[in-house]
Write a structure and sequence with these properties.
Distance between the termini: 57 Å
CATH architecture of the largest domain: 3-Layer(aba) Sandwich
Structural class: alpha/beta
Largest sheet: 6 strands, parallel
Mean pLDDT: 94
Order of helices and strands: HEHEHEHEEHEHEHEHEHEHEE
Helix content: 40-55%
Length: about 300
């Protein structure tokens, strides 16, 4: 073979290997993609990563099982990914495996739901206490500070649930003529349907509902429709501000929603800085906002 041809082949092989070695892998270990929000969060991350030719994206779906999530994170550690993004369902159970990743030199971004350790690179979230407070203030005003409220909670072991509940209960407890009952919907439409069915069959009615996700509230609306209960007769406040919620607010079948950004774009932008050896804050907060009929068309849904 001509030596010039050999040289060109070797040159291109070398260039390819150099380019390949420059590619960094970002892995996203997600809790449960049956949850509309969590799925959209992964897809937003994926789409943002596509803007960078030197980044490769992989993800896993634990399907709501903590043991599976831990296994998947450990697998990413063994594969020596360059950076790990984690969306957890339990603030305590994942601590050992996330600490393992961090202590093995893998930068870790905790997204949205917090964990009870400092063994991570940065935590990106929104103020969940503020979300609960906003919902309580809005409902209190709408009810003229009298009546009953159903609080639909998400996953009990997730810090976002605990913080949203704290913000809500701290505020609503100031209104002595408002009573609160709680139910758990695990941030899933199907679980909310099941719980709401039980309430309706038991003859329990409330004047307002604060659902800690719009997905759960969509399930609530389906039950109300099934039993001929007018949605507009209940002050319904959701969280996330999805496209579905926007339509419901526009149709007056949902009162409002609190926009809770996915955080995927921010996670990737932060990951790029980390992989470039730039320093990043230990905590990054993304603002939230109450969306009502008045500002509905000025605020973009998260998906």
């Amino acid at each position: 073979m001509d030596k010039h041809v050999v040289f060109l082949i070797l040159f291109f092989i070398s260039a390819f290997l150099e380019a390949y070695e420059g590619v960094k892998t970002i892995a996203f270990a997600q809790d449960n993609m049956a949850n509309d929000f969590r799925k959209a969060q992964v897809y937003e991350t994926r789409d943002e990563i596509k803007k960078y030719s030197n980044l490769h994206f992989v993800y896993s779906d634990a399907k709501g099982k903590t043991a599976t999530l831990i296994y998947q994170i450990d697998k990413f550690i063994k594969e020596k990914v360059d950076l790990l993004i984690v969306g957890t369902n339990d603030a305590d159970a994942v601590v050992p495996v996330i600490s393992k990743a961090y202590e093995n030199g893998i930068p870790v971004i905790i997204l949205d739901r917090g964990i009870n350790t400092q063994n991570y690179t940065t935590f990106i979230n929104s103020d969940n206490i503020e979300i609960g407070t906003l919902a309580a203030k809005h409902i209190g005003k709408k009810l003229s500070y009298k009546g009953s409220v159903l609080l639909f909670e998400g996953l009990q072991n997730a810090d976002v649930t605990q913080l949203r509940t704290k913000g809500f209960m701290d505020e609503i407890s100031q209104y002595k003529d408002i009573q609160v009952i709680k139910r758990t919907g695990n941030y899933l439409r199907k679980d909310a349907i099941s719980e709401m069915e039980k309430l309706v069959k038991e003859g329990i009615r409330t004047d307002a509902i604060f659902s800690q996700s719009d997905s759960m509230l969509s399930g609530v609306r389906l039950v109300l429709q099934k039993y001929g209960i007018k949605e507009s007769s209940i002050v319904m406040v959701g969280c996330d501000y999805t496209g579905e919620a926007k339509i419901a607010i526009d149709n007056a079948t949902q009162d409002s929603s609190i926009k809770f950004p996915l955080g995927g774009k921010e996670a990737v932008q932060t990951a790029v800085k980390i992989l470039s050896k730039e320093s990043v804050p230990k905590h990054i907060s993304i603002p939230v906002a109450l969306v009502t009929k008045e500002n509905l068309h000025k605020v973009e849904p998260i998906f």
